[in-house]
Write a structure and sequence with these properties.
The complex is a heterodimer. Chain A folds into two domains: 257 residues, no CATH class; 84 residues, no CATH class. Helix content of chain A is 67%, strand content 4%. Chain A contains 20 helices and four strands. Chain A has a two-stranded antiparallel ribbon. A two-stranded antiparallel ribbon of chain A has the order 3-4. In chain A, helix 1 packs across helix 14, helix 2 packs parallel to helix 14 and helix 10 packs parallel to helix 15. The radius of gyration of chain A is 25 Å and the shape is elongated. By secondary structure, chain B is α/β, with parallel strands linked by helices. The chains are: A mainly alpha, B alpha/beta.
Chain lengths: 404, 236
């Protein structure tokens, strides 16, 4: 066991000693910085006319949003919002958000207005002209809309009951809180996840194959521990690498986001951020759950990539297949009517890491108990990791040094 | 101490690389001679357990080649093998020692001892990518000796060594051969002539000569060249 620790340390040294690791890591950091900072850069134009800089727009919206923080989205706030929006003269010639009335009366209520529109699915002008603000009606409309969503997804009666039960655990009326940091983290979640998985694929695609191309496999395989412990040392080092990468890139994203947007909104209901969600969690908890799922996906991906590299004996082929899978995940959407296939596809590590999958409606039923995606998938990944690693071991042990 | 190679063959699709070789090796230095493609490296790989024979068995003191205990007594220097460029010489040997199941203290002591033996103590903390070809070869020799192997298999060990180093290495092998089984292959007949007590000569996957060589047999080089010529003649 002592030797396992030494071997593990050297396997980590091999991994972290590669230049490509640090170059790719630096590139990932640059991509994160750019994607987080881009909303502040440049100016907002409408009809070819400069309206304001993006930074000023952000600061104004932030001020309004902070002014609403702590208020319940109740009858009073709904009426204030709709009254303010009714002051806008809606015309075909002018975009409503460019009117003076919008800027003066309606814009301070835009977060609440967006929540209403998102909940009721009404078109902007229709909403203003026909909807009578009513707190009960708003939350009832949300329930009706959720039922339609669940049915459209082909959820079973048991699943619908499960989600309805979770809905009862959500406290309404929602209390509005400024939550820009969590909104940003959620909207960048898929980008950061993809970066993490790509980073892992690039850096781990050579863990086993490079021993063959470098011809170090001969002295490893004829050593007493070269067919057993070294395999697990490599796998463990790869897992550590994946976990550290996921945590570091996530932490960097958190810190950058907090520096830009602050920490307000940790305790806000997640439904302010993701209206159709039925998990009784706060924005902060939801973000931690999402990034936690990323760590599990990173682990299973790392093992998959390493075993693939042993199977193919080639970094390039391993990287090509892994990248191909990531791209396929972005392109291919399995229609909801093929429920099982759609669920399996959505839960694959390279597809799963998107808010609509992590907080998706598909569940896993175990002995009558339903588990949400974010509860079931990490467990599945854990089991899959063990299975893939176990499959890889005989592949590694059976390797024959020949033909050089 | 006995290495038994019993009717070992290795066949690739339509080529027999090693053809029913049977030989018993006991304490001493064995020189394996043969032209390129004669099957030397294939045989050595099978002896080291990194290539499975198509048929036949290999065992050391009754321990089968596939067992971990067999690998514990084995030291192997492949003909052409790689290093970890970012590792220092010291790191590389400590890593290999861990792979060979050695404890920390023993590994450190043995590593320092071997670095001195192969005259790499001054560059022990430099990265391997800065080493010359000869230095890398010496590091390879050191890793093969780490676990004080009872069975030492050396494929072209003198390649890349300068004349002075070759002489030192020959003496080292001779010393090791007193207590252990050393099997070495080389193209340099003079090396074999000076170190090896017994000669194993391979041709087309078969062992065509296995015995002691002394001056009464004539010059080994002449004998070897005669067989190569025969082979080339056959090919023509």
């Amino acid at each position: 066991m002592n030797n396992f620790r030494v071997l593990y340390r050297y396997e980590c040294k091999k991994l972290f000693g590669r230049k490509i690791v640090w170059i790719t890591f630096a590139l990932c950091i640059v991509v994160i910085i750019i994607s987080l900072c881009i909303p502040f850069i440049g100016s907002y134009y409408a009809g070819g006319e400069l309206i304001d800089t993006n930074l000023n727009m952000y600061q104004t919206d932030k001020r309004y949003s902070e002014a609403l923080s702590g208020r319940e989205i109740n009858q009073e706030l709904l009426e204030e919002t709709i009254t303010a929006y009714r002051k806008i003269p809606y015309t075909n010639e002018l975009q409503y958000s460019l009117t003076e009335q919008y800027q003066q009366y309606a814009r301070p209520y835009s977060p609440i207005f967006n929540f209403i529109v998102g909940t009721t699915n009404m078109q902007t002008s229709d909403a203003i002209l026909s909807w009578q603000p009513n707190e009960d009606d708003l939350y009832a409309q949300r329930q009706t809309w959720l039922k339609t969503v669940w049915e459209d997804l082909g959820l079973s009666k048991g699943e619908i009951d499960f989600w309805q039960k979770r809905e009862t655990q959500i406290e309404t009326p929602f209390v509005y809180q400024h939550h820009e940091a969590y909104s940003t983290l959620l909207s960048h979640y898929q980008t950061v996840s993809l970066l993490v998985l790509l980073f892992i694929a690039i850096c781990l695609s050579g863990v086993f194959s490079e021993e063959h191309t470098r011809k170090t496999d001969q002295i490893i395989l004829c050593s007493p521990l070269g067919k057993t412990w070294i395999y697990w040392a490599k796998i463990t080092a790869g897992i550590s690498f994946a976990v550290i990468s996921a945590i570091l890139l996530s932490l960097f994203t958190f810190i950058m986001t907090i520096c830009l947007h602050g920490t307000d909104g940790f305790n806000a209901a997640f439904q302010l951020l993701y209206i159709s969600n039925s998990d009784p969690v706060t924005c902060g908890q939801a973000i931690l759950i999402a990034f936690g799922c990323m760590v599990f996906a990173a682990i299973v991906t790392s093992i998959f990539v390493m075993v693939l590299s042993e199977l193919l004996h080639s970094n390039i082929a391993t990287l090509a297949i892994s990248t191909g899978l990531f791209i396929m995940a972005m392109i291919v959407v399995v229609p909801e009517q093929y429920r099982l296939l759609a669920q399996v596809w959505d839960w694959l590590p390279w597809c799963f890491l998107a808010p609509w999958n992590v907080f998706g409606k598909y569940t896993l039923s175990i002995f009558g108990h339903y588990l949400t995606s974010w509860q079931a998938v990490p467990m599945i990944y854990f089991v899959a990791s063990i299975v893939i690693a176990a499959i890889g071991k005989p592949i590694y042990q059976r390797f024959q040094v020949s033909g050089r | 101490m006995e290495l038994i190679i019993d009717r070992v063959s290795k066949q690739y699709k339509n080529k027999i690389a090693v053809d029913r070789i049977s030989v018993k090796l006991q304490r001493g230095v064995y020189g394996l001679l043969g032209t390129n493609g004669a099957g030397k490296t294939t045989l050595m790989r099978m002896i080291c357990g990194i290539l499975k024979p198509t048929s036949g068995t290999i065992s050391f003191d009754g321990i089968d080649v596939s067992e971990e205990n067999y690998r514990s007594v084995l030291g192997y220097l492949p003909q052409d093998f790689g290093y970890y460029p970012e590792f220092t010489g010291m790191d590389f040997l400590l890593y290999m020692a861990a792979l060979k199941g050695m404890g920390k203290a023993q590994a450190k002591r043995k590593t320092e001892e071997l670095l001195e033996l192969v005259s790499l103590q001054d560059v022990a903390k430099k990265k391997i990518k800065t080493y010359s070809g000869g230095m890398k070869q010496r590091l390879g020799i050191a890793q093969a000796l780490l676990n004080q192997p009872k069975l030492l298999v050396l494929d072209e060990p003198t390649a890349g060594l300068d004349p002075k180093e070759r002489v030192r290495f020959r003496n080292l092998i001779a010393d090791l051969g007193k207590e252990n089984i050393v099997l070495l292959s080389t193209h340099i007949v003079s090396d074999i002539e000076q170190i090896a007590e017994r000669i194993l000569m391979m041709k087309d996957g078969q062992l065509i000569y296995q015995d002691k060589w002394d001056d009464s047999n004539g010059r080994l080089e002449d004998f070897y060249l005669h067989h190569i010529d025969e082979e080339e003649g056959e090919h023509e």
